[in-house]
C-alpha cells in the first residue's frame, strides 16, 4: 500500500512539474516496435548526455550556432524561455559568422564567439546545398549594418510567457499551433523584414536561400524554439524538418550571473 501511495505521489509530482513548466508534449501512437508514448520537450543537451565536443573545422556554411553567456540579459532570456540558450548565430564559412545584436547586424570571426560565450552548440539544416549556402551567405553579408529589431524583442518577451498557455501538457499539436498563431497575430502585429533580432535573422537568411526552416513568422521564433526543432525533441513551433545536431564547440556548466550585462 505504501509503495502504491509513493507511486501516485511521484506521478502527481511529475504532472505538477509539467503544468508549471508548460513544456510542449507529443503523444506517439502505438506501433509494432513500441507502445503508446508521451514525449516531453527537453532542454537538456550537453557533452556526455547525448552530445559531443567538436572543433570548428567540423562546421559547414549555414550551420546554426546557439549560445549562452554569463550576463543578466542572457540569464533573463533563458529564464523566460526555460532554455539553456539565449542567442542564435549563423555560420558563414571561412571562420566567419553573422549575427543580429543590439548594435545591428554584424559579421565577425567565429573564434570571438567561442571565446566569449559559455556554451556554443551547432545544428545543421538538412538539404542545404552549395548554391543555397552561397545565397544565404550573400544575403547575410548584404544585411550588415541593418538595425536591430528592438521593438520585436520587447513585444516577443510577453508573447513568450503568454503563449505557454498554448503549450500545456497533452494539448493536441494542432490546437497548440492555432493557439500560438492567434496569440502571435494579436500580440506581435504585422511582420517586417528591415530589422532583425538574432533568431529572426537566422530564419530570414534561410528563407532568402529558398530553404525556410519553418512556415511560422520568424518573429515568433526564439533561440529556444530553434533548440527544440532538433531531431528527437518536441518543437513548440513546427519545423519544416528537424535540425541535425552537429556538436558543441564549447560547453561549460550553467554559470552564475556576471555582475554586468553586455
Structural commentary:
- With 262 residues, this protein is α+β, with helices and mostly antiparallel strands.
- Helices cover 37% and strands 19% of the residues.
- It has helices at residues 2-21, 72-81, 110-116, 130-142, 150-162, 173-188, 198-208, 223-228, and strands at 25-28, 37-40, 46-47, 50-51, 64-68, 87-93, 96-101, 104-109, 119-124, 244-251.
- The strands form 3 sheets. It has a 6-stranded antiparallel beta sheet with strand order 8-7-6-5-9-10. Strands 1-2 form a two-stranded antiparallel ribbon. Strands 3-4 form a two-stranded parallel sheet.
- A hairpin with an 8-residue loop joins strand 1 (25-28) and strand 2 (37-40).
- It is globular.
- The model is unreliable at 5-22 and 256-262 (pLDDT under 50).
Amino acid at each position: 500500500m505504501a509503495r502504491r501511495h509513493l507511486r501516485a505521489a511521484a506521478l502527481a509530482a511529475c504532472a505538477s512539474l509539467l503544468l508549471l513548466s508548460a513544456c510542449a508534449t507529443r503523444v506517439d501512437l502505438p506501433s509494432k516496435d513500441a507502445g503508446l508514448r508521451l514525449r516531453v520537450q527537453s532542454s537538456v543537451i550537453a557533452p556526455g548526455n547525448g552530445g559531443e565536443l567538436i572543433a570548428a573545422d567540423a562546421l559547414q556554411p549555414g550551420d546554426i550556432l546557439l549560445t549562452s553567456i554569463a550576463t543578466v540579459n542572457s540569464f533573463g532570456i533563458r529564464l523566460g524561455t526555460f532554455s539553456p540558450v539565449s542567442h542564435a548565430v549563423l555560420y558563414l564559412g571561412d571562420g566567419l559568422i553573422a549575427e543580429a545584436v543590439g548594435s545591428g547586424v554584424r559579421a565577425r570571426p567565429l573564434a570571438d564567439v567561442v571565446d566569449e560565450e559559455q556554451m556554443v552548440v551547432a545544428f545543421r539544416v538538412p538539404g542545404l546545398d552549395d548554391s543555397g549556402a552561397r545565397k544565404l551567405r550573400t544575403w547575410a553579408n548584404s544585411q550588415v549594418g541593418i538595425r536591430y529589431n528592438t521593438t520585436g524583442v520587447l513585444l516577443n518577451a510577453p508573447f513568450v510567457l503568454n503563449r505557454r498557455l498554448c503549450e500545456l501538457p497533452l494539448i493536441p499539436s494542432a490546437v497548440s499551433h492555432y493557439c500560438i498563431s492567434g496569440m502571435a497575430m494579436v500580440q506581435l502585429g504585422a511582420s517586417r523584414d528591415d530589422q532583425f533580432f538574432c533568431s529572426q535573422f537566422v530564419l530570414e537568411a534561410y528563407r532568402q536561400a529558398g530553404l525556410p526552416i519553418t512556415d511560422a513568422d520568424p518573429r515568433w521564433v526564439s533561440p529556444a524554439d530553434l533548440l527544440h526543432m532538433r531531431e528527437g525533441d518536441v518543437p513548440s513551433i513546427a519545423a519544416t524538418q528537424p535540425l541535425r545536431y552537429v556538436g558543441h564547440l564549447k560547453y561549460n556548466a550553467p554559470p552564475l550571473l556576471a555582475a554586468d550585462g553586455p
